[in-house]
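Batch manifest line 371
LIGAND: magnesium ion
JOB: complex structure
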Amino acid sequence: MSDGSDPLPPPMPNLEQLGWSRRTGPAPQIPKGHTVSRVVVEHRGAYELLDDEGPRIGALDAAVRDAARTPLDYPTVGDWVIRSLEVRHNRRVVITDVLERTSVLCRRAAGPRARPQLVAANADILAVVTTPAPTSDFPSTEAAGVGHRIEWYLTAAFAGGARPVIVVNKVDTVSGAECEASVDALRHRLGAAATEVPILATSALDGRGLDSLGALASSGATVAFSGPSGVGKSSLANRLAGAEVVPIAPLSPDGRGRHTTVRRQLVPVGGPAGGTLVDTPGLQDLIPWGGDLGLPRSVGPLDGLAMAFGEIAALAQSCRFGDCAHTVEPDCAVTAAVSAGELAAGRLGTYLELVADIDTGDPFGSQRGSG
Ligand SMILES: Nc1nc2c(ncn2[C@@H]2O[C@H](COP(=O)(O)OP(=O)(O)OP(=O)(O)O)[C@@H](O)[C@H]2O)c(=O)[nH]1
Ligand SMILES: [Mg+2]
Ligand SMILES: [Zn+2]
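JOB STATUS: finished
ARTIFACT:
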């Protein structure tokens, strides 16, 4: 396919450009003959790694594997790990440690059994990608709304210590007025969270808004993209990386793809400032994991909820019962605010739906350390 005029592939990023200096927490002990590396892709039983030495394939040390109790104990995309410099069996280096995470995006895996599924580790920002028009795969109950599950993503981001932003992509498909209406509708429905969550309007097609989105990934920051299939997550990642790093859906008549991305992947954006993106497969929904996330700071799903629904958390302070469910209880300040027209009934409805979705009974709680 190449006709010789293709731009050169971007040079391999170094550890700084991969975000190493942004990492907080205790400085790791790096044993002799080992180095720090970042997980780029997770395969069954193997990991694509990137560091100052270039790309490597790593396998998990048997001792780390044996000590793993939950899916959260395994390396995932975005993780910092310690690996052997030396190639051991099967032309693979050996991952001997997974460093403490600064953030973790974790959902409840689909299926009857409650299990956590990691989306990305050490993302500074979760970009929730959506489109201005309601689509069948991100259904909306509001005419100009964007998707009734955005609050789920915001809660998961806050709970895991990542800052959420909303990216309304494909704005080239609507008029300026429609785009503004979509953004306004979003702001309105997000209540108090609207002041905490920036909303960017972008087009991976004509490049609108890409500077602002790219700026989020500067200085070695990591921006993870999530959202439904076909909204343009991979297209945005490729545009920002300046190369076709991840496959995107071929243009279909309705301009939407279907589950083109099948794996999560860290994508370095290149340039002196560095920065990385995490492209992920489209999700039907993202139910925040209700159990322990293993983070050093004690944020969790309930803190995430309180941050995504700040005005409800504030009102709840005045409920008569400390464990008020804000449904039928007497002297509930939250339902009183709805009656008084100070809190949108839909906002409370969304909150209650999300609370019901988050199962805080952690099946692994007793197996994880207290830290
Ligand atoms: N008009 C327009 N089309 C876009 C834009 N961004 C992406 N597309 C198109 O939308 C389709 C889906 O894009 P992808 O980047 O594959 O979407 P995705 O979110 O990665 O989808 P999954 O990998 O299935 O989760 C492709 O045909 C893109 O060309 C945009 O800003 N404007
Ligand atoms: Mg994709
Ligand atoms: Zn109440």
